[in-house]
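Treating backbone geometry as a discrete language has practical consequences that deserve illustration. In the encoding step, the backbone of a single protein was reduced to a row of integers, each denoting a local shape. The amino acid sequence and the backbone structure tokens for this protein are reproduced below.
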Amino acid sequence: MTEATRTTIGDALTELILSMFRVNNLTLTWGDRLVAAYGLTSARWQILGAIVYADRPQPVAWLARDLGANRQNVQRIVNDLHGEGLVVFEPNPHHRRAQLVVLTDKGRQSYDAAIAAYNPRVNAMAAGLSLAEIQTAHRVMTRLRHSLEGEIDAEKHD
């Protein structure tokens, strides 16, 4: 077999990846529609969630890392959130220039409203799926994420 020949399992993974692209696009569109009434987009909502779930306030670069996103894109969105009064910047005692991103009360209210709209919708979407199916899909996605992160890290060091 030459390197250019894809295996049967490679074909199956390719089909999964193509499905993931489609699901990702549909998820973003669905999320945009779900949170639009709260002045959010899927991207803004995702960043607010990263801030909420962080152990402590973090700089943009750390938020981007945790999200697996481009730092410049996260910075642009955080700047938009700041302009809307959803986040503020606070001094970082460990780094003069990398300010910490902190949720405001308005940001927390927007995030909480989005989650309140999301919860019944995600519960309805989960109907018909078993917990085991969801957990298996999550394990597969996690393995793929780790493989992709490893490849990207290796390319950075080449």
Q: What stands out?
A: Helices lie at 8-35, 42-53, 60-67, 71-83, 105-126, 131-156. Residues 8-35 form the longest helix (28 residues).
